[in-house]
Structure to design on (315 residues):
């Protein structure tokens, strides 16, 4: 049997080509590879061409109904990562394209990064670091987290791991999730109660039509004054104008953000001028360990599909 033809249309900047997963992939498949972003639907369609499978690296490549309709040979879309908000899943199903992802592989890395953002915001580490470098000796105004309440929204693999870390530093953990489950040491509550009582609110939901702008004006009005918001999930979960207003008027004490409504975050964006915000460039899950595990799984997902044993199917 001829090797499967696979398109990698968007390895930019390259993570797959330098990885340990690449040699096995190259040995077993016919590859069409690009280390630049497509930039348009037309270019994405052209790059995929007659390939039977796509290994999708970047969520900026949007797989719309038009894209699926233009690719009659496509049978599998293997996504590196867990998010599928850049994919029209009903259109994929309509065109008989199976979609797979890599669940759980980045959970520890993202949860650790979320904790790092929390500590950076609570202890004002970027601010005091800069002040110390200027020769100032700024002290105080930081927050001790032990005994505070951490509200976790979403208890998938990442949310559960972050809840464990928050509990490990002595926080009381409460949570809400779309699919309730019993987790030792975590008190399940309704959303309004979580917003009103949590000193820290951490988002761990997938972005979907149901969760778009999940935190909007109503939710920000409910938040406990001075609370800290953490978002390492998707920028679209938060209504950005409401977030900016809450950070500016003091409703929020601070925020630790790894994701944004528009990425990369534009130069001069209002968030960059706020002293109570810590920003990172959507890198929470990009550690060597998580990177290699996720890329290996995305490659394995292709060959499991070819062998008739598909795994990690989203749709």
């Amino acid at each position: 049997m001829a090797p499967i033809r696979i398109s990698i249309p968007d390895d930019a900047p390259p993570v797959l080509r330098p990885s340990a997963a690449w040699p096995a992939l190259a040995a077993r498949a016919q590859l069409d590879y690009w280390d630049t972003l497509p930039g348009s639907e037309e270019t994405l369609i052209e790059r995929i061409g007659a390939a039977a499978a796509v290994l999708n690296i970047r969520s900026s490549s949007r797989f719309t109904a038009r894209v699926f309709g233009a690719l009659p040979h496509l049978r599998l879309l293997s996504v590196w990562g867990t998010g599928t908000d850049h994919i029209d899943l009903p259109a994929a199903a309509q065109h008989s394209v199976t979609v797979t992802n890599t669940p759980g592989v980045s959970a520890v890395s993202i949860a650790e990064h979320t904790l790092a953002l929390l500590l950076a915001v609570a202890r004002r580490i970027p601010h005091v670091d800069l002040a110390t470098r200027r020769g100032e000796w700024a002290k105080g105004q930081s927050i001790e987290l032990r005994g505070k309440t951490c509200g976790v929204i979403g208890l998938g693999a990442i949310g559960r791991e972050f809840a464990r870390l928050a509990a490990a530093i002595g926080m009381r953990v409460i949570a809400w999730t779309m699919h309730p489950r019993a987790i030792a040491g975590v008190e399940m509550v309704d959303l309004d109660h979580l917003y009103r009582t949590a000193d820290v609110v951490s988002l761990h939901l997938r972005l979907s039509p149901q969760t778009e702008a999940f935190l909007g004006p109503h939710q920000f009005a409910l938040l406990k004054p001075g609370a800290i918001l953490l978002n390492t999930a998707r920028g679209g979960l938060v209504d950005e104008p409401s977030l900016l207003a809450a950070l500016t008027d003091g409703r929020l004490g601070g925020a630790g953000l790894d994701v944004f409504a528009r990425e990369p975050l534009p130069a001069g964006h209002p968030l960059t001028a706020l002293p109570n915000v810590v920003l990172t460039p959507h890198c929470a899950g990009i550690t060597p360990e998580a990177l290699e595990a996720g890329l290996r799984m995305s490659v394995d997902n292709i060959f499991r599909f070819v062998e008739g044993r598909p795994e990690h199917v989203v749709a």
Summary: The mean pLDDT is 96. The chain has two domains: 4-105+288-306, 107-279. The chain has eleven helices and twelve strands. The domain at 107-279 is CATH 3.40.50.720 (Rossmann fold).
